[in-house]
């Protein structure tokens, strides 16, 4: 008989350790596990036409084109002077004429590079103010980059030709 109360107390204690199955979380997928957090595709906003901005781009492009025309004329002159100076010693009249012509090319190249930098500055200012890319500006920058690179290549080839003599 003594063991009956002890058995009842033991059963009560063991019953306190038992839990129902509803306390455990379900292993089924939760609602938030099915959510997609990928940013949706949004169409790129189009820049609105701006006549004043277009005028600034046109002015810089015109400056660049004029500078390139002057560079092409000066490059032809420099080519003839470099050809005359080829084989001449440094310090001769022909060599000095060629060096002068090359310095004129450097000045014109720097004007074109400054114009490219001005166009790029316009793009930076638009970006800083949170505005969209402006297609006409990008076209002008691309064109200016091609012109500056071509001028650089031509001037370097002339400088190399006179340096070899």
Describe the protein.
By secondary structure, the protein is mainly alpha-helical. Helices cover 70% and strands 0% of the residues. It contains four helices and no strands. Helix 2 runs parallel beside helix 4. The model has no long low-confidence stretch (mean pLDDT 88).
List strands and helices in order, with pairings.
Layout lengths: L2 H15 L33 H35 L7 H36 L6 H29 L2
Helix pairs in contact: 2-3, 2-4, 3-4
In brief:
This protein is mainly α.
Order of helices and strands: HHHH
Biggest sheet overview: none
Oligomer: single chain
Query: What value does the Rg take, in angstroms?
Result: 39 Å
**Mean pLDDT value:** 88
* Total number of beta strands: 0
- Poorly predicted runs of 5 or more residues: none
Query: How many separate helices?
Result: 4
Beta-strand content: under 5%
Helix/strand/pairing class, anyone?
Answer: mainly alpha
| N→C terminal distance | 124 Å
Helical amount:
55-70%
Shape: elongated
What key attributes describe this structure?
single chain; 165 residues; 70% helix
